[in-house]
Design brief:
alpha/beta
Amino acid sequence: MTQIKICGLMRPADVVMVNQALPDAIGMVFAPGRRRRITMATARQLSQQLDPRIRRVGVFYN
């Protein structure tokens, strides 16, 4: 079965969109030097607004 993950969430508006689309998972980028990198504090804030049916995935480097 195909699963969908939307990656690079950075803003509350991104969470609104994924809550409507209901993908299987979302990705938050923590890898240094990446354009869409967010802090743990931002990740917590976004996660609190995320529909609980959507899995949260961290994107790291090494």
